[in-house]
């Protein structure tokens, strides 16, 4: 009996010790280790959608999306009407002939493998048409044209019933930290259905339990790393593409790579 009481008291002390020290004696609380930054790695032009003279000559339609803040830390945004119907049809048209089986990347890109038990889908790295470049620019504007941040080449994902899915995962390296202060800073996931795919599939997004079926053209955006200088990733960004039970689900992944603040 006394032993049980002692354990309960000890657990209570340990539970309240950290918040008490932070208020009464903050100097005694170990500081969060800061990120050791390295110079910017070489820019991978095959991976990143770099701006060039072609972008300057394109006239893009005015943005008409609406943004809702779902969560602040990590920042999660729900974006209505990120893609128009014509843009969704264009993405589907230019993807149909270039899909390849999706793969899984480990160790920051050090190894790549195909595992349909974890990820059963197809992916198309779409050509940079004028429409695609306007979508890239829209994704940059959504993030405020941050310095040292580049949108990756757009990837259209296709999940086909009855097995199409992508198990729970992160968009950042399993190490949980940005390498040298550089990494996949943010994720933007857009539902691309053009009205003819007839999919009942849903997606499990960060901080929202179960599955969510998005109206076509809508998106969820989130940041992957904490803005405290530690380079630590948010474990709350755990998400998945749930199994497609009938029809076909098509989504657009827009990842942004760059400096982790």
Automatic annotation (TrEMBL):
Gene Ontology terms: cellular component: endoplasmic reticulum
Domain called Prolyl 4-hydroxylase alpha subunit: residue spans: 74-257
Stored InterPro entries: P4HA-like, Pro_4_hyd_alph
Keywords: Dioxygenase, Iron, Metal-binding, Oxidoreductase
Domain of life: Eukaryota
Stored Gene3D superfamilies: q2cbj1_9rhob like domain
Molecular function, one GO term: L-ascorbic acid binding
Cofactor(s) required for function per UniProt: L-ascorbate
UniProt name for this protein: 2og-fe oxygenase family protein
Organism name: Ophiostoma piceae (strain UAMH 11346) (Sap stain fungus)
């Amino acid at each position: 009996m006394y032993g049980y009481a002692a354990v309960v008291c000890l657990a209570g002390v340990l539970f309240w010790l950290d918040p008490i020290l932070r208020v009464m004696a903050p100097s005694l609380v170990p500081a969060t280790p800061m990120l050791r930054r390295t110079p910017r790695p070489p820019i991978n032009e095959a991976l990143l959608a770099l701006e060039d003279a072609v972008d300057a000559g394109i006239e893009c339609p005015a943005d008409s999306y609406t943004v809702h803040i779902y969560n602040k830390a990590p920042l999660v945004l729900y974006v209505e009407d990120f893609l128009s119907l014509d843009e969704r049809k264009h993405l589907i048209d230019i993807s149909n002939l270039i899909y390849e089986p999706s793969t899984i990347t480990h160790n920051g890109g050090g190894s790549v493998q195909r595992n349909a038990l974890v990820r059963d889908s197809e992916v198309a790295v779409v050509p940079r048409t004028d429409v695609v470049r306007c979508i890239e620019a829209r994704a940059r504007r959504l993030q405020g044209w941050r310095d040292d941040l580049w949108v990756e080449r757009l990837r259209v994902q296709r999940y086909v019933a009855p097995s199409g899915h992508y198990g729970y995962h992160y968009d950042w390296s399993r190490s949980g930290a940005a390498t040298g202060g550089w990494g996949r800073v943010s994720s933007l996931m857009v539902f691309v259905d053009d009205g003819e795919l007839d999919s009942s599939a849903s997606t499990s997004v960060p901080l929202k339990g179960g599955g969510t079926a998005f109206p076509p053209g809508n998106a969820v955006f989130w940041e992957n790393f904490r803005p405290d200088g530690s380079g630590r990733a948010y474990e709350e960004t755990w998400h998945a593409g749930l199994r497609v039970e009938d029809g076909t689900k098509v989504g657009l992944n827009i990842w942004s790579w760059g400096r982790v603040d």
